[in-house]
């Protein structure tokens, strides 16, 4: 099975910001897969926008916060449609790392998103930097 369709939904510019970041790494993304829940929208507007993106494929709705309106509307849709799953609180790293992977089903995909998020969320420890000297170059990044 190919990976399920991903719809990113969140408060403010959460979705479009993730879209822009993903495009830096993996190229153009489908606009309709990123839905910002703005202050001008009602809960019904958000529900309708998400629902329009659901088809017969498996879908994973990726939301910013557990318990927020985007999460609640996604959960409502998932409750009514067994092909829809919801994962919340994950990060850019998890989306990037799962981009080219194949999964047996949406449940395996969602679990991988959560597992990767747990692995990539970390605290910078100054003790780890004790070997750094003033001539080290910090300009290189991803």
Give structural notes.
There is one protein chain. The protein has five helices and four strands; from the N terminus they run E-H-E-H-E-H-E-H-H. The chain is α/β, with parallel strands linked by helices. It starts with a strand and ends in a 22-residue tail after the last helix.
Q: Taking strands numbered 1, 2, ... along the chain, how are they ordered across the largest sheet? A: 2-1-3-4
Low-confidence stretches: none
- Quaternary class: single chain
Number of DSSP-assigned strands: 4
Number of H/I helices: 5
Brief overview:
The chain has helices spanning 14-26, 43-51, 69-80, 92-98, 106-120; strands at 5-11, 34-37, 59-63, 84-88. By secondary structure, the chain is α/β, with parallel strands linked by helices.
Q: What structural keywords apply?
A:
142 residues, alpha/beta, 4-stranded parallel sheet, 5 helices, 39% helix
Secondary structure elements and pairings:
Blueprint: E1 5-11, H1 14-26, E2 34-37, H2 43-51, E3 59-63, H3 69-80, E4 84-88, H4 92-98, H5 106-120
Parallel strand pairs: 1-2, 1-3, 3-4
Helix pairs in contact: 2-3, 4-5
């Amino acid at each position: 099975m190919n990976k399920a369709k991903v719809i990113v939904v969140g408060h403010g510019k959460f979705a479009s910001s993730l879209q822009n970041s993903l495009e830096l790494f993996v190229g153009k993304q489908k606009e309709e897969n990123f839905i910002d829940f703005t202050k001008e929208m009602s809960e019904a507007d958000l529900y309708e926008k998400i629902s329009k993106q659901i088809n017969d494929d498996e879908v994973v709705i990726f939301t910013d916060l557990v318990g927020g309106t985007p999460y609640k509307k996604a959960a409502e849709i998932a409750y009514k449609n067994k092909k829809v799953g919801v994962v919340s609180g994950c990060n850019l790293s998890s989306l990037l790392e799962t981009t080219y992977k194949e999964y047996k089903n949406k449940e395996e995909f969602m679990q991988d998103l959560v597992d990767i998020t747990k692995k990539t969320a970390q605290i910078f420890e100054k003790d780890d930097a004790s070997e750094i000297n003033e001539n080290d170059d910090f300009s290189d990044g991803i």
